[in-house]
Amino acid sequence: MSNNPSDKDLILNFLKTFVPNYQSDSTADEGSVIEPHTNNPYLRGNQTDLNNIHIDNYATVPVNDDVQERIERLQNIAGSIEKRVITPQTASALLPANKKLTIDYQNSLNPNQYLAATTVQGPLLVIAGAGSGKTRTVVYRTAYLLETGIPPEQILLLTFTRKAANEIIDRTSQLLKNSNAQKIMRGTYHAFANHTLRHYARMLNLPPNFTIIDTADSEDVIDLIRQEMNFAKRHMAFPKKSRIQSIISKARNCNIPIEEVLRHEYTALLEFTADLNLLAQAYKQYKAANKLFDYDDLMDVLRDSLRDNLPFRRTIQKAYRYLMVDEFQDTNVVQKEILDLIAQGSRNIMVVGDDSQSIYAFRGANFENILTFPATYPDCKVVKIEQNYRSTQPLLNFTNAIANNARLGYRKSLFSANNTPLKPTVAKLYDQQAEAEFVVNHILQFREKGVALNDIAVIYRSTFHSNFIQAELLKRSIPYVVVGGIKFTERRHVKDLIAYLRIVLNPFDAVAWNRVLKLVPGIGLVTASKIMETIQQNNGKIDFSTLEKRKFGPDLLNLQDALQQAQRNDITVATKIETLKNYYAPILRTLEADYEARLQDIDVLYTLACKYETIERFLSDFALDPPSTQFQNQNSPLIDESEDKPLTLTTIHSAKGLEWYAVFVPHLLDGLFPSVRALKNIDQLEEERRLFYVAASRAKEQLFLTMPGYFNSWDQYYTMPSRFLAEVAKNTFTVWQDS
Known about the structure:
- The protein is of the alpha/beta class.
- It folds into 4 domains: about 45-80 and about 390-485 and about 635-739, Rossmann fold (3-Layer(aba) Sandwich); about 85-200 and about 300-385, P-loop containing nucleotide triphosphate hydrolases (Rossmann fold); about 210-290; about 490-630, Orthogonal Bundle (PCRA, domain 4).
- It contains 33 helices and 17 strands.
- The strands form 4 sheets. A 7-stranded parallel sheet has the order 11-12-10-13-14-9-17.
- Helix 20 (about 395-405) runs antiparallel to helix 32 (about 680-695) and helix 26 (about 555-565) runs antiparallel to helix 27 (about 575-590).
- The chain is globular.
- The two termini are about 35 Å apart.
């Protein structure tokens, strides 16, 4: 984005139109530092309020008897782990006397990290606090397993991103100075399931060339069924495809009926329970008929196969005798069942996580998995890693207080060798504009002191919490990047090219055919459906000769020729993409004015494909762990790139695992954070608390917690500071005073 005034005027006009209550200061010089409304008595009066807030002044969240009983049960389990905790004083984990090891594990790790790395027999729960060197511990544990003679092929490492898995393996290889770690089976749950189901397809009676469809494709299939079954016509309020997909997926991830999902999260849709069950069944049948697997199928089929197919289960248990699981607090019910079924063989399972950072319930993560691990494995050992290498002790005093106010969870007390005296700063400003000015003023002060902008982050609960701050950053010409935006894999031309490739792999892929045929002029839904039926009847053979005389016949034959060329076994995956690009480029030219720039995205696919020997592996990796490219890291707005790298504006979910010198968390009013929706449900409120913990624990040196004096939205008006601040001891933070 250019830095000329006319561009800024356009942006600011846009913000005035679409940002509620946004007002720019037309009297200020461009780029000047605007002081907050320091003379307003409302501002000063509310600073003293922050010292006097108390949790008793907040309405309690109702808890019924069933929920209370569950909480007490989980509290008892969590409380029992103290009996299982092993410490350097009590542990008997000793290095084998008869094995010479190249790495000095004991002096390379702190005492509790060392215990976690060298306790390799039997079940082990490692509770690793934020910034405690969890990845380093797993790296050394992996090296220790290999050095003590465990074959790498018998180790299974599961993480939530391929990047995390590869980082662990690469660091282990560097540590050992050999490539043995590269033979370890590692990756995401979905990637592991994909590999396993394809490898043992015959044993499981599965089609080895099944296609994996992403969330958008799942929604399209659901929409097709929704239209075919006339649900939309029968009910004006029938849910849209994206909502239906979310409901079905949540039910499967949590292993609960659709009705229960509706009862907890979508009560207004309860009247559609029977229709949604029917639609879910039709969706399942449609995928089976077209050899399609969505993300949830990968998990469900692997779980069901391990549970019901004894020879298969024994084969997998024999193959993987040492399991290591990262971020265990983020697993869902089905993933935990898969782990337990595999671990039944050797029982050598190590899970590492932090219950205080479980923030993915919206996608099915079950917070209880990490709490109930000791109940699943009564003989498990527990190691707590509590020395923090990220934050100062005053910051840890504050975040410890947040975590230990939780109704559920393991008690932990993180500590640091860094005793810098700066406590977190809490500030209540006059309004949203004053809050934005306060945040940006302090960002500029950090910059003047030599702190790089890219070592500063604004982390928020909801995207609209950043609106005024974004506007203020624009006024001051401060470069920033918003994490999010349109992903590379979601661009229409990329999805088009991938659809062609999916047909090359699996000619029965009706979702891909539907997308591809819509690009042929003259073909509508009815004709596309008939063409797909013909392909089914011809057992997947692509032959459009009978349609040659139709008006769309020549275009259809061109498509046939391109697909048949790409199906050749004697060409590489990259060459297949080049063939399909040559066919698709003229089509894209008629669709998009910027087609030349879009073709460069397809060149990215070509470059990526050069590393793959099979189209199946390329498509699986692309669907399960999409490539990270420049397009995902440069979202608007970004001004004056020449002088500063941009600061980060991000949601809490996107910030997990990252860290910055200084962090600002805005809009900390009760009803905004925690969200008003969470104030009626104890589980949702506890997840909001964990979100607050994650946001606050991203800071290394300085943390600012801010709020406007009030916020009004429709019929709701919020003025009270977040209850999470009211719960913690007042000596853990400093209240900002206008000077």
